[in-house]
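Margin note: ligand = adenosine-5'-diphosphate.
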Amino acid sequence: MFSKILIANRGDIALRILRACKELEIKTVAVHSTADNEAMHVRLADESVCIGPAHSSKSYLNIPSIITAAQLVGADAIHPGVGFLSENSSFAEIVKAHDIKFIGPKIKHLKDMGDKIKAKEIAKKIGLPLVPGSKGVVKDIQNAKKEIQRIGLPILIKASAGGGGKGMKIVQSIDEIEIAFTSAKNEARAAFGNDEVYIEKYLSNPRHIEVQIIGDTFGNVFHLGERECSIQRNHQKLIEEAPSPALTKDEREYICNLSASAARDMQYESLGTIEFLYEDGKFYFIEMNTRLQVEHPITEAITGKDIVKEQIKIAANHKLEWKQKDIKFFGHAIECRINAEDPKTFMPSPGKINQFHSAGGLGIRIDSGIYSGYNIPPYYDSLIAKLIAHGNNRKDCILKLKQAIKEMVIEPIPSTLELHENLLENPDIINGNFDIKWLEQTYLNGK
Ligand code: ADP
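Resulting structure:
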């Protein structure tokens, strides 16, 4: 087992990894920017190293600084967390070249799945159903028009290096193609330094369903059930739940087993998530995330497995101690992402938290690095807390969440806590009657 892990991340996820390390009796090293001197992950780690100024390109994305920090403190592994460098194959290669273990999948899988066009090719080969779309990169507007004729409108232009919904443009009518194509390419170049785009049929009312995969270095590859993440704004998830209220038992078994066998074919290691859109009883692969996901706590709630600890153990070449049949699912879990954003305009609302009171009780989990007196820096993602409830069933879970939201105080900064409180009263949410467009087109549009 590792003796010291450097956590190359911040916020709730850095804290989450730190907790797993403590339970495995592994020493922790926090790295942080100057804006995060007072952050909880820094306070709780055994050691900490400041790796640069506030801007993430100079700190959390600064590979030489992170490697130097790891060497200085003698860390034998690096956990990249979520976002930042977590899916960066060059980072993983550099870590390896310095004889440090990168806690994540094989470099090949980071590379293959980071290129969404390649990912779709592989998915097709291993038998996953795809969204109809272009065969590969669409080079210019001329080719885009040809693809549209073949696929039919509406279509979605997507960035090959995509992530976080960036570089995506919907085209509803053919006269929109020129502007959409150019702006998708520009956005992709700015966000990822790669302007390759491809085209997919734009599904009109899909739900987002994803399957959690775990694999060890001995060829044991299993699924840990599905999550539904259809409550989205700007292609960003706001609420996630497990299991999905939309699937029948047969559909669940089909997609989970298919995903596990696809990952087994790839000889996948570590944690991964295979994402699908689901419409009219059919699944369509969209991408595979080769890392821990923000929404992993709901899977942990319904399976009782600590998947971050498992991920660390796998990186240290431990065999998974269970088989697929040993993974049992119980109850229902929902996660509300609490962002430092105005609940109506969604404008970021960084600033000082003067009062923080956490919720509690059976089945309530809060993953967060905030505290009374904490100053939310303006430089990073606005996620400040994840509120997770686990109940015997969906209704029980919603009731627990409602009470937890009432108990929680985050003052005076505006946050999406209020939005969640209202959403949980909505009949469509209560009945599980939504798709990926529901929040923006039905709920927010009607306000
Ligand atoms: P990213 O990696 O940028 O997050 P994804 O491919 O995972 O991109 O898609 C993010 C979200 O965008 C999905 O959850 C869904 O809401 C929407 N989306 C993606 N592809 C399609 C599609 N073909 N039709 C309709 N919506 C889509």
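The first helix runs from residue 11 to 23.
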